[in-house]
From TrEMBL:
Superkingdom assignment: Eukaryota
Name of this protein: TIP41-like protein
Pfam families found in the cross-reference section: TIP41 (PF04176)
UniProt record similarity statement: Belongs to the TIP41 family.
PANTHER family documented for this protein: GAF/PUTATIVE CYTOSKELETAL PROTEIN (PTHR21021), TIP41-LIKE PROTEIN (PTHR21021:SF16)
Length: 216
């Protein structure tokens, strides 16, 4: 019998934090096939936690299940599938240092130079979460409150979960990870895409969300 993702819920004022975690997506099977068909990529990361997700929901009602099922409820959800949908499926501008030498050494062997479909094999994504519900989004000049983040407020709970990871054929690492901490005074989320291509590139894309009690 197939196990479902473990789900944990946390309430912070009018916010409901929903964490779902499960094992790595299997390399074979219907779930794998369905996941791959949802993407345009010719290959996907080695380690995908397809059922891992973190949802931040604005939930003023005491009926949490009703709010979660309501399509009008304001939510920000972080998951692997939506993140990988933003990976470039047609172009790649990064090569490992020895790629050119490898091609030149096989220039006379046509069989070794079969054209492969180009795609961003580093799985770089500009993903910053998936919005749903009746949000009113507008630009703001105010940045993060760094003084607030440096405070030593007691942490009520902490989340550290991974959406996907790949070792790039032993040429580095690509990982999308989420950290979340909640205090009585608010919460802070950091989603980080980290990429290291050995001998070639270091890249970090951060998405940071902050809420404080006095933000209302």
């Amino acid at each position: 019998m197939e196990q479902t993702a473990k789900c944990s819920l946390h309430r912070i004022d009018d916010w409901l934090i929903v964490l779902k975690e499960h094992h790595i997506l299997k390399s074979l099977g219907k779930e794998r096939e369905a996941f791959e068909k949802s993407l345009e990529l010719p290959a996907i990361p080695e380690m995908i936690f397809d059922q891992n997700s973190l949802s931040i929901c604005f939930c003023q009602s005491n009926n949490m299940s009703e709010e979660l099922d309501n399509e009008k409820t304001c939510k920000i959800v972080f998951n692997a599938l939506d993140a990988l949908k933003l990976v470039d499926p047609k172009n790649i501008t990064i090569e490992v240092p020895f790629a050119k030498d490898w091609r030149e050494s096989r220039a006379n062997n046509v069989g070794d130079l079969v054209a492969h479909r180009p795609y961003d094999w580093t799985f770089t994504t500009p993903y910053a979460g998936t919005l749903s519900g009746l949000w009113d989004v507008s630009p703001a000049s105010e940045g993060l409150d760094m003084d607030y983040l440096r405070r030593k407020d007691p942490i009520h709970f902490f989340i550290n979960t991974t959406l996907y990871e790949d070792e790039l054929g032993d040429n580095g690492v690509s990982i999308l990870n989420i950290k979340f901490r909640a205090m009585s005074s608010g919460f802070f989320l950091l989603q980080r895409f980290f990429l290291r291509v050995d001998g070639g590139l270091l890249r970090v894309y951060d998405t940071r969300l902050q809420w404080r009690q006095n933000d209302w």
